[in-house]
Structure formats: structure tokens, C-alpha cells
Specification:
CATH superfamily of the largest domain in chain B: 5'-Nucleotidase, C-terminal domain
Number of domains of chain B: 2
Number of strands of chain B: 9
Oligomer: heterodimer
Strand content of chain B: 15-25%
Distance between the termini of chain B: 37 Å
Shape of chain A: globular
Largest sheet of chain B: 5 strands, mixed
Structural class of chain A: alpha/beta
Order of helices and strands of chain A: HHEHEHHEHEEEEEEHEHEEEEE
Number of helices of chain A: 8
Strand order of the largest sheet of chain B: 5-2-8-4-9
Number of helices of chain B: 7
Strand order of the largest sheet of chain A: 7-8-10-11-13-12
């Protein structure tokens, strides 16, 4: 398992100056057309402080979920797949008394233990206010990525990054994050100083940067916008339609159980996948990108986190 | 098995590597790998055990019983109806103590009900999971126009947890709304019990609480629910709910 690498801005510029050629000369891309690199993306969203499985008397989800089983599933995937990225699309806070009693420390500790590679912010991350969120995020050993909130002058400013570039098997994977409009969703006093920017323009800017300047071969958006809405509100599906160059949108907020990702034709006629893994850690999504010189394709599974028998 | 295999764009074969996009999509049938889910990461279980013990001691207390499992549903559901009724009961007591007229109706946020209630023992933790937020109950004086806006909003959401009103929804539009306490009185202003989350515009709620129209009860929704479950227990009773077509 390789550690993620954050390329400095200087390196981006170098790559950009030498043109697309630099990207093509990276070892993985000198593969013969028959050689393939498989990148396994594992993803969760809206885990909502669900540390333990649902109690046995829960009317809907008795005995399902829980971080210990999820962790084991992640470990098994890592032992069988060489190149794994474990990502979360936000709202890891709020929903069980673990959050009321310990303020998020348990959720962060569990995610640290599972070696999450990155997460983005959901609206419920703000439920105890900006200062409390900053205190908890400072304990995270994984980057928190958001590209469309401005945190200037808040304690979150130094804790959130607009993007991160991971390297797996010689493939550069650019990850950026989009959060939902907080107004009308989060009490204004709890997200004071956080400014929201329009997601589509932000996404276009991030994709341009990640692909053209940073030379990423795969671009993933961690989104907490919600899967789809009846009206024209910005959602993952709308984002996929109105942009180009995003390979995969890992969504959240709407607690949508997708058996397989939506495959949406984007502005260039390419495809963007939209995935979401329900909520409460009931599912662990898995999408494999199989990348060769000629093509990029994928397979997927949605794994249920439940006990057998 | 749905399979959408799309033709490989020939030009991509010659395009630069950096421009490589998804050009073939092969969605296999969902594979459930339950055997993967069989075991637990015991290291993580042990690491979290002190937190779990502390939580179980504080949250495992049985505060009462439910005569049935309650889950949320639209346009109305057992859980939402119970929560609205419990809030109304407890705030009616509060109003009596504070010499304030009791509200005409109660409306809560469907999305704010975060977990189901089981049949049988209800623990403190069950109520925390149902209502993890620290939202407080407020009483807002509203006009007939406000009521119309509320009906429109509720219809657009497909329903809501309510008590004290009846409404009909037809194809996403409000057909009618009636305040039950107003059947024989012909009032033109009403009092609405709701959460400060909605009164601050949460979930696109159309009515804002202001210093002029709002009375803060200082009661947390969660504390009110805990109190209601416990009061039933003290009377050797269990909580119950029903569907009565209040919203349909």
C-alpha cells in the first residue's frame, strides 16, 4: 500500500510545462496495451456516528452495520487488492449518543483506525459549531477535502484542503470535494464564517486543474450534495450532466442506496459514474477502475455490512 | 442483469493518456459478498470498548416501553404521529404551568426523525438516536396566509409529522388544510408548535419565528420525548401511535 502523495504546486507546473507528455511517460502509462492497473475504490457516506451495529430490536436494520465489521471488510479488500483508496462523503458525525457524549472523537478514532484516505464535510459535521468541528478534525489522520466552502478567518481554515492527489500503482488520482449549501440546513450560528460557492463552477475549475495542471488520470469528486431532487436543485446527477472530466462522484446526504452506480453521459459525451452507499455504514461501496493504455473501465459491488447466519 | 457496454471511441486509442476518460462501462450484477462481512475487527472493538462501556452505562437505561415498533413514513407515519403528539402533550403541560394558551397544532420535521423506535423496552439511547439534535420547541403565532404557505410546503414534502391539523395532498399540491381546534370558532390566527430548526428556516420551512411572533419554551424536543416515554412508564402504560388519515 503506497502512501498518498501530495504534489507541490511547483511540481504541477513542471508537469504542465512539459505538456501531456510528462504524464504519458510515468511508468504505469508505459504499459503495453494489454497491461492493466486495477484501482479499488471503497466508499461510505452518512455513517452518522453508527459505531455499533443497529440493535437487535431495530425495526429496519437489526444487527446490521458497525465499524468493526466494516473495518474487517476493508482489511480483507486491502489484503486482496494492491491499490485501494478508502473514501467517505461526509456526515460521519451525529446520529447516535456516541456523538452526543464524546463530540465526534469516537468517529474520528474509528476512521483513523480503518485508515481512511480522505473524507469531505457533510452538513452534520457542523452540528456542534465550527470551533468544535475544528477540534475534532485536528485529530483526523486523513485529509478532509472541500473545494467549495471558504473558511477564511475560521479555525477550519488550516484543516480543510481543496483537493488531494493520491498515487496508486503509478496512477495519479485527483480527489476534490463539494459540500451542500448550508443556509437553511445548518443553524447560521453553527457555521458562522463558512461561505458556500456554487458547486458546478468549482467542479469545472478543480477538474481543469487536476487534469491539465496536475496530470491526474482519474478524477473523483467527494460530494455531499445529494443524489437527485425533484426540482432543479444541484445534485450529483446534475453535476455529472453539466461537467466533464469527473470519472466518479461519490455522493452522500440523500442516504441513497444504489445497487450500482448511475452511469451518466456528461457534457463531452463521456461517462461519469454517480455512486452512493446508503447510510449508517450499512453498505461499503466498491468500484474498481481497470486502467490500461487504451481504456478505463470499471466494475462495482455494493457490499452489505451484516453478519452471516 | 443490466449491461451497458458502450463502444470504445476509436479516437481515444490515439488520444493522449492524460485525456483518458471512461469509455467503456460494464456494470456487472450486484455481487453480495456476505462472507466478507462475517467477522469483526477485534482490535477496533477493543479500542472502542471504553467508549462503548461508558455509553452503555449512560444510554442503556430503560425509560419506558412501546406497544409497537414505530418507523417514519409519509404522508404520515407511526413515529411522526407519536412524536408530534408527545410534543403537544408535554407542551400543553408547560403552557398550563406558564399560563399560556396551548398551541392549536404541532408540526415537526420528517427529516429530523433519525431512527425508529422498537417494540418493548425504550432506552435513553433509543430517544437520542431518534432525536440526536438539540432542537428546542417554540410556539409561533401565524396568520391564515402563513397556514396556506405551510400547507403548500408540507404538500411539496409529501407530508410531515403533525397533530391538531388535517390536510389533503393531491399530486404534490395542498388540496385542503384544517385546524381541528378551529372547527367551530372561525379564528384567523393560530398558534403552531414546532422546532427552532424549522422556525429558523431549516428544510425550507416557510414561516420564520421572530421576537414578535414567537414564544420559546426552552424545552428540547429530545427531553420532551424522554419525558413522555417516562410518564407513560410511571402510569404503568406504554407509548402507542396510530395512523388516522390526518394527512393523505
Amino acid at each position: 500500500m503506497e502512501e498518498y502523495v501530495e504534489l507541490s504546486r511547483r511540481r504541477f507546473i513542471r508537469v504542465a510545462l512539459s505538456g501531456g507528455v510528462a504524464a504519458c511517460l510515468s511508468p504505469s502509462l508505459l504499459l503495453s496495451s494489454a497491461q492493466e492497473t486495477r484501482i479499488t475504490i471503497l466508499h461510505t457516506n452518512d455513517t452518522h456516528s453508527r459505531i455499533d451495529p443497529f440493535p437487535s430490536n431495530d425495526p429496519k436494520y437489526a444487527g446490521m452495520g458497525g465499524v468493526a465489521r466494516r473495518s474487517e471488510m476493508i482489511k480483507m479488500t486491502r489484503s486482496s487488492s494492491e491499490h485501494v483508496l478508502l473514501l467517505d462523503s461526509g456526515d460521519f458525525f451525529q446520529g447516535t449518543p456516541y456523538f452526543n457524549l464524546f463530540g465526534g472523537a469516537v468517529e474520528i478514532a474509528a476512521m483513523n483506525s480503518m485508515l481512511y484516505d480522505a473524507s469531505t464535510l457533510g452538513n452534520h459535521e457542523f452540528d456542534n459549531g465550527v470551533d468544535a468541528l475544528a477540534k475534532q478534525l485536528s485529530l483526523a489522520r486523513f485529509p478532509i477535502i472541500n473545494s467549495n466552502y471558504k473558511f477564511t478567518g475560521t479555525p477550519l481554515e488550516s484543516l480543510i484542503q481543496p483537493y488531494r492527489i493520491f498515487e496508486r500503482g503509478g496512477i495519479h488520482i485527483g480527489v476534490f470535494g463539494l459540500g451542500i449549501e448550508l443556509s437553511g440546513l445548518v443553524d447560521p450560528t453553527l457555521c458562522a464564517g463558512v461561505e458556500y460557492a456554487e458547486p458546478i463552477e468549482t467542479a469545472k475549475r478543480m477538474v481543469r486543474f487536476l487534469r491539465k495542471e496536475a496530470g491526474c488520470q482519474v478524477v473523483i469528486c467527494l460530494s455531499h450534495l445529494g443524489h437527485s431532487y425533484k426540482d432543479h436543485k444541484i445534485s450529483d446527477r446534475v453535476l455529472a450532466e453539466r461537467t466533464t472530466g469527473i470519472d466518479l462522484i461519490l455522493g452522500g446526504h440523500s442516504h441513497t442506496f444504489l445497487e450500482k452506480p448511475d452511469c451518466i453521459k456528461n457534457e463531452d459525451g463521456d461517462y461519469t459514474l454517480v455512486a452512493q452507499a446508503g447510510w449508517a455504514g450499512l453498505r461499503l461501496g466498491r468500484i474498481d477502475f481497470i486502467i490500461s493504455r487504451k481504456q478505463k473501465r470499471f466494475t462495482c459491488e455494493s457490499l452489505q455490512v451484516k453478519k452471516t447466519g | 442483469m443490466r449491461k451497458c457496454v458502450l463502444p470504445i471511441c476509436i479516437f481515444l486509442m490515439f488520444a493522449s493518456c492524460a485525456a483518458l476518460r471512461i469509455n467503456q462501462v460494464d456494470l456487472p450484477q450486484l455481487a453480495r459478498v456476505d462472507s466478507l462481512a462475517a467477522s469483526n475487527d477485534t482490535t477496533l472493538i477493543q479500542m472502542l470498548q471504553p467508549f462503548r462501556d461508558s455509553m452503555n452505562i449512560r444510554m442503556g437505561i430503560v425509560i419506558g416501553q412501546s406497544s409497537q415498533p414505530m418507523t417514519k413514513a409519509l404522508p404520515e407515519g407511526l413515529l411522526g404521529n407519536y412524536c408530534a403528539e408527545a410534543c403537544m402533550r408535554q407542551v400543553t403541560d408547560w403552557c398550563r404551568q406558564n399560563q399560556t394558551p396551548k398551541p392549536d397544532f404541532c408540526i415537526l420535521n420528517h427529516g429530523g426523525l433519525r431512527a425508529s423506535l422498537p417494540f418493548g423496552d425504550i432506552t435513553l439511547g433509543n430517544v437520542y438516536e431518534l432525536m440526536p439534535f438539540d432542537n428546542e420547541l417554540v410556539i409561533i403565532r401565524i396568520s391564515q396566509d402563513d397556514l396556506k404557505a405551510l400547507a403548500k410546503h408540507t404538500a411539496s414534502k409529501g407530508g410531515a409529522p403533525v397533530v391538531g391539523l388535517r390536510m389533503r395532498i393531491h399530486e404534490g399540491e395542498a388540496d385542503s388544510i384544517e385546524i381541528i381546534s378551529n372547527r367551530n370558532s372561525g379564528k384567523t390566527t393560530f398558534t403552531m408548535l414546532t422546532s427552532d430548526y424549522l422556525a429558523n428556516g431549516g428544510d425550507g420551512f416557510p414561516i420564520r419565528g421572530t421576537s414578535a411572533n414567537q414564544t420559546a419554551t426552552g424545552l428540547k424536543v429530545r427531553d420532551v420525548l424522554i419525558g413522555d416515554v417516562h410518564e407513560h412508564k410511571l402510569k404503568n402504560d406504554s407509548i402507542r401511535s396510530g395512523i388516522d388519515g390526518r394527512i393523505r
